[in-house]
What we know:
CATH topology of the domain at 158-237: Arc Repressor Mutant, subunit A
Oligomer: single chain
CATH class of the domain at 158-237: Mainly Alpha
Structural class: alpha+beta
Strand content: 5-15%
Number of helices: 12
Amino acid sequence: xxxxxxxxxxxxxxxxxxxxxxxxxxxxxxxxxxxxxxxxxxxxxxxxxxxxxxxxxxxxxxxxxxxxxxxxxxxxxxxxxxxxxxxxxxxxxxxxxxxxxxxxxxxxxxxxxxxxxxxxxxxxxxxxxxxxxxxxxxxxxxxxxxxxxxxxxxxxxxxxxxxxxxxxxxxxxxxxxxxxxxxxxxxxxxxxxxxxxxxxxxxxxxxxxxxxxxxxxxxxxxxxxxxxxxxxxxxxxxxxxxxxxxxxx
DNA sequence: CGTTGCTTTCCTGTTT
DNA sequence: TAAACAGGAAAGCAAC
Length: 249
């Protein structure tokens, strides 16, 4: 497994991906550890680790955003809703489909996907072993998703929506990151993307971080959130926020 | 129908 | 300077 590991690392180190990842991971830490470089945010598995046709729709989003980052394109310049699909659907898109979905960015995404289709790692037993060894969520399994994704209850609250993205790193496409897991401190990495996703949930295509953050500020009074001063895009769960701790119930 | 809770929208001003 | 932060004010809306 050592050779495969070195192979992976050499790919990662020589690509623009590394700088893209480390800069958005934590600007205060110039020396990201192996875990960070290999798995990115929240210990999640990078979509590059498997074949695109098997990506979840969250991994598709992740891929789109990382390609945009690599090309220094603002994520908000294309409607991410157009990529609300899983890897299988993504792989069946034509060049024309990409043009329609992403305009001038379409060809970039199309070419990137074409490359991945050819060089995609089949996902061997060894790579799965490495993932199991290093993936934090595997060592500390989160509570069943069903208890947090209300199928019977209508109308999810914003803070629950944020929490559910955070506690399920597998599905968190680098949108929000824990700053201090135990204390419940977290930071928005892609504020506008989170707003779009929230808007999608509420069937509101005009949602922005500006408006989302106003709702977040209302949570301070209700002690669902606590203030974190001087740190942009950073929030902290308060005493009235439930279901975010690692050991809770 | 009216109330209530939770936003959503808009705004002006301040801070980073 | 752009992006966030702060809140007041008021509208929207679904549940009750």
